[in-house]
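Researcher: Last one for today. Full complex below.
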Amino acid sequence: MAFTKLSLIEPILKALSTEGYTIPTPIQQQAIPLVLQRKDLLGCAQTGTGKTAAFAIPILQILYEQKPLAAGIKVLILTPTRELAIQIDESFAAYGRFTGIRHTVIFGGVSQQNQTNALRRGVDVLVATPGRLLDLMSQGYIHLDKLQIFVLDEADRMLDMGFIHDVKKVIAKLPAKRQTLFFSATMPPEIQKLAAVLLTHPAKVEVTPPSSTVDKIEQSLYHVGKMEKPELLLHLLGNKEIKTALVFTRTKHGADKVVKILQRHNIRAAAIHGNKSQNARQGALSDFKNGTLRVLVATDIAARGIDIDELTHVINFELPNIPETYVHRIGRTGRAGNIGTAISFCSTEERAELKDIQKLISKTIPVVHEHPFTANAHIAAPAPATRQQQSFKPRRNFNTAAGQGGNSQRRSYGAQRSR
Ligand code: AMP
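Model: Here's the assembly. Have a good evening.
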């Protein structure tokens, strides 16, 4: 089915063709007609499914059809992170470029001056993170009495990140008569309760990400001693096939440490996490997107919503303690029909996390036995002969690899890919 079958107006079709989009994704096919019919929507979908366009396109059309527009904010999109907020605003800019609809984005961590200037000039669509929104509302810069459409994006992340109280405060200020679009990748009980309060006879749309964990992403697992993880990472990055890698650590400090090690080995890397300034985070992200950086090391919160179409590898330097986070992390690769690779390091201390992850994805992640750092990982080896090989031989391989420009690195990687 083509976009032209969705009864979209010319300015939007023109913008979509400029973007190179011809076929709507499943969530767009389902959601666009429902939103245009002014229905409330409960969307079970995560980033990567095309959900931003699924709400941005019909919202732009609804507003365009009301032109000339009355003053005031008519649409509010609430999203948990700055990165997501910026990306959503960029989507409105892209799909709305021929509509004349005014939009702006507000988020914390930067001066409010530019944001309040934009608000004073007047906006139709406001994209916001909860904290800055409440702040500017309390200062009188934002009034939501003219609101027609409210979008709550990534509701489950709002909960994870402790924003649910702020979200509820915002909701209390919205006009009762409005259209509400509610998106969440997962539906824990608290989120179901919130959806029930917010939505009136909602239409439901549910999509699995195009690159679900089971099919398009090649997953592999390395059992490795905690102390040897940096060496294993360097070893794997010796493979030039890894063009871009998003590496996940559990802590900000851990992210900085990994970056230092990589930089010492002349690998172009940067970290993004909550302690970095907004400018540093944006800079690192765009350097990563344009290929200046090869490796981006991120904590889960900082990486939320990062959307990079060409990302080839996700490396879990440390396993997350929430198993759903594993699915979110690896879903960053394998976008847009590309093959993605997700590599996970697991130390003895992380066995419980691994067990939970495998239970959630109903799959045993294939283990790469052939690598130089198995000695301290205390693997329950399948057979004595293999065990001996794992303990000693690969380390010699690594030493050789270091001296010979990485042949065995490629061999190890090949082994990993073929599993
Ligand atoms: P989202 O799930 O909204 O974060 O979108 C994921 C990615 O898919 C973004 O990079 C979009 O630009 C892209 N995208 C969204 N819809 C389409 C489409 N119909 N055709 C091609 N790419 C799309």
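Residues 60 and 96 are 6 Å apart (CA to CA). Confidence is low (pLDDT under 50) at residues 210-214, 379-419.
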